[in-house]
Amino acid sequence: MKRFESVARESLEILNGLPHGAALLDGECRLLAMNSRLEALTGHASEDVAGVPGGHVIRNRSSHERSPFGEPIRTGAPVSMESDVVSADRRRVPVRITAAPLKGPGPSPAAILLFVEDVSVIQKLDALAQGPRSLPDLVASSPRMQEVLEFVPVVANTDATLLITGETGTGKDLLAEAVHRASRRAKSPFVKVNCGALPESLLESELFGHSRGAFTGAHADKPGMFRLAQGGTIFLTEIGDLPLPLQGKLLTALDDRAFYPLGSSRQVEVDVRVIAGTHRDLKELVARERFRQDLYFRLNVLGIHLPPLREREGDVRLLTDHFLERFARGLGKAVKGLSPQALAVLERYAYPGNVRELRNIVEHAATVCRQELVRPGDLPDYVLRGAAPEPVEPPASAGSSAGGLDGARGGLGGLPGKATWSEVERRMIMEALVECRGHRGEAARKLGWGRSTLWRKMRRHGMA
Known about the structure:
Layout: H1 2-16, E1 21-26, E2 31-34, H2 36-42, H3 54-57, H4 71-75, E3 79-86, E4 92-103, E5 109-118, H5 120-124, H6 143-156, E6 162-166, H7 172-181, E7 190-194, H8 200-208, H9 225-228, E8 233-237, H10 244-256, E9 258-259, E10 268-269, E11 273-278, H11 282-287, H12 293-299, E12 302-306, H13 315-331, E13 337-338, H14 340-348, H15 354-368, E14 373-374, H16 381-386, H17 421-435, H18 440-447, H19 451-460
């Protein structure tokens, strides 16, 4: 046992360099060591579970007749199977478990190498032959987005660096993952790093790793995201926020496919495809000497620009239906769609936050909606205030009173052609109250609002 514990300590650096979860077990299937990926999956530190039976830590649904822990001991042959393991946050994660026995002097295995590969994303994208539209939330029908989606198989068929540009919330991370899943690297990790989320000192360690003692608190070697992405793809989002000193080290890593971890004198070689994303204008940053020109050219071998949602004709309705169906199902609600009035508001809104903002708006609407159709009152107030006014025709007859109802059915006559949404909403309330003879409960039901919502809006418009 002590001999294998020594082997486990010596093997831990090798295990941490593997792109999947990995563990070393003794001949009785007791854990000797786990790498950092398996620690993250199980929620247990390697040293805390040393000597514990593997099946107690890596909990899965495999039968006792065919188990990655029992069968290699009985047969002496490698075993590979698909199963589910319970993660640290108590989710069932689909995995492929491979157990390889290591022969000893006797008939029984001296130790067992266990590999645990997360296949959840691969299962979701098993229909990649149908194109990247199968990726959740990457939904589009507009001509500009169709051009983007048609380009995905082209850029997926190469290992050249790719730069994805576009405003915040346009789906750069989803597109990067679609490219990865359509490439030959699909079975290897897809690792995402936000270059603007950490200070420079921590970001270098996050990207390239560090050796033990490199700085205060570095009690053990850390592989870094580039090594964790070995064989796969690393997506560097917000690359425009990467500090200048790290830009040089990234450029060297791209050119040499190798780098020195922080505090280490030993070079590490990696096989990783790099995709970068940014909402910033990198050419402008280069002109202001805040981004290296040579790194910009190195990243922009291939480029894709994602258009903002306001330029994607027809996609607002498509995405709204997609998100609403998902949130309604998750909330257990019978929300079937949007009223024409609510849809008109959403189609007039500018979406500065793009698809991410639309998703949040629809989640809000699905949560507060109490009918089968989402009404304007179910949308966030800032959307109602920010929606461009719908053109309002003048009264059909010059004899109509300015304060009365328009002769056209359902019209909002008497308002100026450039009426604001506030004016339109106030007039809607007035018409509903007139039609319901001042009965607020009936007016609220007619507008699709609750009584409290109607009261709040009447107070806002100075009507109560």
